[in-house]
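Lab meeting tomorrow. Look over both lines:
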Amino acid sequence: MLSILANRTYRHLFSAQIIALIGTGLATVALGLLAFELAGENAGVVLGTALAIKMIAYVGVAPIAAAFADRVPRRSMLVALDLVRGGVAVFLPFVTEIWQVYLLIFLLQSASAGFTPTFQATIPDVLPDEREYTRALSLSRLAYDLESVVSPLLAAALLTVISFNSLFAGTVIGFFVSALLVLSVQLPSPQPSQPRGIYDRTTRGIRIYLKTPRLRGLLAINLAAAAAGAMIIVNTVVLVQGQFGLTQQDTALALTAFGGGSMLAALALPSLLDRISERPVMLGAAAFASGVMIVGAMVSNFPMLLILWVLAGAAYSAALTPSGRLLRRSAHPEDRPAVFAAQFALSHACWLLTYPLVGWLGATFGMGLAFLAMAAIGTAGAGAALRVWPKSDPDVVTHIHDDLDADDPHIADAEKTQRGFRHAHAYVIDADHAAWPTR
């Protein structure tokens, strides 16, 4: 897996991702401490609102940012957004009012909503070989999971010698170093063959996404994964410290179990996907995650919870890590930023639904019903994916054009039939293919 780091461009991009993630992790810890300093016992309300603002920024800003991705060289766009994120983080230590927290979080996450999909869409152009790209996806998943473990530990160590406000300096440094690493390499910037209007550029990714059967299936899998993930992220502390009467350290251990399961799956996926297509892996993982939620309704002790969280982490990673392969196959290189932005926005819309729902259900009706509700949502998502994502899902699709002139270059090699011009090629939604073939 690590052999792909021999590619200098990818190595620098991966390093930029890791450094920015650690900086973001330090900011997360510091933000929690800042919220407590400003709001005391109402810190949970502040953090919950900040989380909602983050999701709103992700859902609303990502498609708009993608509209400009083909107007600006990708390297320039990524560097500029890193500098914006670093510049916003500079002001976080000087916050004195809660509304200032909300404003800065919106600006910071809006920049991330532009940065992350563009960054993700660049990797398949840097690593065109599918086997190498699959390993890059697993490395990225490992980086996210390791960050969730390393950042809190690093923050705890730093807090023994500095104040929490100083942690924001690590965030600033992380974004600026990330910008330097991106600036140190040349990045491909595929351009559309013809100019597009602002509406077309803003909605293009969503339209391609929702017209592609495998991506509609991915959206349903996103919902199933968000149902399980929201239960774990929102209610782990309630289960461990409220229901079992254990400590903060035990809560951290439970979340580490979830991350550990995710890392195990990420390590196993490259070799598994060399032999099996994405569909059975992702559908099976989504269904398994829902099964874990059903068993979770009967959880009665901490060791059982740890086992379930490891299994849930593995299912979550297996359901979502291969998604980059589907997005890569489903768009031309110049459309990938828009399609990755659509995945970014739509997947976070699933989280925006499940986060508050699972918290409200757990607080109002108890953990058992919250588990079962998330299991129901997950099962519905897995079932919808099974229905809308065809079992036969080849890249090359034979299809007929009845809407093009006979001298159109696109059908120069096509066979003329009574119904139109028939040919086969790797099929994606674009100007010549407005809908998916039904026959």
